[in-house]
Amino acid sequence: MSKSKRQLLVEKKQHLIDKIDQQRAALSAASDDWLQVTEPYDRTWKVIVTFRPIFMAAAGLLSIYTIKRPKRIFSLGKKALATWGVIRTIRGAVNSNQK
Question: pTM for this one?
């Protein structure tokens, strides 16, 4: 191999190494930004996981209650949906009046 060809290969290798270093730095910065943006969701998830046994017990009690009184649960569900619809309607009216 000639010396100039070897020199070209060395320069090409160095260029690729520099490019890889730049990409690693960019990836590290993007990773830090991503972790910062998703940090509130991570905190919320940790809280949910902390209270998981309580949620499991409540779900079990709710399922037992539902088996004993299914009509009452369905009526509560209908009331909750109706209330949610009313709240959405009021918010829409308030927001359209503000513009």
Answer: 0.41
